[in-house]
Amino acid sequence: MPDHPAEPQPTREGAPTRASRLGADDWLDAAVEVLLEDGIDDLKISHLSARLGVTKGSFYWHFTDIATMKSELADHCKKVQAAAVAQIAELEELPPIERIEGMTRLMSDPRRWRMEAAMRRWAETDESIADSISELDGQIFQIAHQAMRELGFDEAEAHARATTLLYAGIGFVHAHGRLGEATPDDLRIFLDILTRK
Question: Which Pfam families match (predicted)?
Answer without folding.
Answer: TetR_N (PF00440)
